[in-house]
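Lecture notes, unit on protein representations.

Consider one protein chain, 660 amino acids long.
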Amino acid sequence: MCGIAGILSSVIVDTSDCIRFIDALYHRGPDGRGVYFEKENGLFLGHRALRILDLSETGKQPMHSADGRYVIVFNGEIYNFLELKEELKSKGHSFRSQSDTEVILNAYKEWKEDCQQKFNGMWAFAIWDTREKKLFLSRDRFGVKPLYIYQKNGIFAFASEIKAFQALSFIDLSFDLQKVADTIEDPLLLEPSEETIYQNIRKIPAGHCLTITSERCAPSRPWWNTLSHIDPITKNWEEEVGRFRELFFDACAIRMRSDVSIGTALSGGLDSSSILCSIFQLGKNTHQRWPDSWQKSFTAVFPNSSHDELEYAQAASEATQSQSFYHTITPQDLMDGLDQALYSIEDIFDPPIGPWLLYREYRKRQVTISIDGHGADELLCGYHHQFERAFLESFFPYPQIGRLKNLWPLMTQMYAVHSDRKTPEMMIRLAKTGLQSLFQNSNSFPYQALKKIYWGKFSESAGFGRYGWLNLQPSSFNPVISALHKTKEFKNLSYLNQILYLDFHCRTLPSILRNFDRCSMAHGVEIRAPFMDWRLVSLAFSLPSEAKVGVLGSKNILRASMEGILPEKIRLRKSKIGFASPLNQWIANHLKEYILDIVRGRSFQESTIWNGPKISADLEQALEKKDFFAFRKAWEFILADKLMASFKNKAHFARESVEV
């Protein structure tokens, strides 16, 4: 795990620029710097090391292949590297290190671009071919590891984070104001595309790769499509539960391969508790390349709030005999850390301040790896809005009375801790929506519902955006999602699986992966997520709705597979909270004056993107009426203002090298 950066240029690039470029990623790799130059070819490759596998000199990057032809910089982990190493040895390849980096090099020598299909892991890497003078870049299937690119005036540059580009004297890193407005209106709009909120900075999409020479950069091209890897199902519930458990156990086991200490981010919810308990179960046997130190759990605690899951986290910790660390998060922590957290995540999104502080605690405890539960909600219907779609799906092609009766009490229990949701009224509204759509035009219902959820319509009478606060008209169109809807493979998915597919690949999960990558790597901590194993993903999208929402509740198959492994108190718990701060509650009780102080500030008032005077006046009125919903709607504007200020304030730091 680390930070990578590189330049391929037809013009001369200053060496000191290159050093500053890679050192801007010091936080991702505090264990050392490695560089490689071919000045005659305009090439620079840089690596900041966070040493995880092979802590010796043989594991250092940039790494050369045995014959010297290929040079790699790599960020991530190839979890099946031990199995691939044996396969490559059988084909005549030799190895000098104990690292997964060398496995990638030899796999590329053997299979070229097809090597990507061989890897089970998370990665962003660049391989330079010294013979053909071309650079190959690849990003993992689901975009767990980031990779950003700049291309202009004969210069191609790439880096793990956008902030690194501030270090280059020939780049004026500035915000695209239209994209900022789009993101304020819909923070998830740009997720599946190459676009960012920064001018001239694009991202290589998940599951894509590209090849570049000093004369030409081909467009990025997809090498992975989940829809082409949907597994056939047996339609035997016991067999599917057993298959799910087997894959999940193996996904956990191979993610424990490490030469440094490991901890588990334990929220107390079903996903993280399943991981911790499964690892504990696996730890009773001998596994290759597991570290000695791995039985630690870390929990963010939100006292006196609906988001506090301490009771359940303690139950999982006691069941696994893990050493537990509990870190209390307060509204003051959010106010004190917001600027730094926003600068870390680089986007207009509510930063997960709890995890950001929790990963800092990891580092203090000398724990370098965190095993997290990302992906389970998006795969197995863990969110409230997905459960609502499962409820609506039960009306088509005709009302399934038995299933509706089963879902009704489950939905009531799922919303139990959310006082802002009036469950009976909501469910009656959903039932009316389903019946009306059924009788009006049942064939168009799923598509129309998806269109409403993922496109939305802006009210012309209200002006642009939220409360008419935006000066620029935001876009609601995403071409990636639009094209996806036209494919036969997507249409063949059930209505619920379509919702989950969009959340997993295009909307919710990509933002989570970005935010948590930045929050953890800001402190030099690597995240591994067993639910993101591609084999488990393929299986999940082959399963029918009943496997995801069934008699046990949401994530039905996970609950069934964890019987006898997970404490029943957690396994059968129906309420859903999520690993996030209780922002709505904090705004209503602690953050009102904090928000008002920001919107009254000069930069906020003079913004060309939004109408600062109107926002501040509207919030003053909302305060008198105790309308805290308006304050919540203003939060994205606050984040945008603070993010832009943080990049402006920290730009000069990037011009200085961290390490000589």
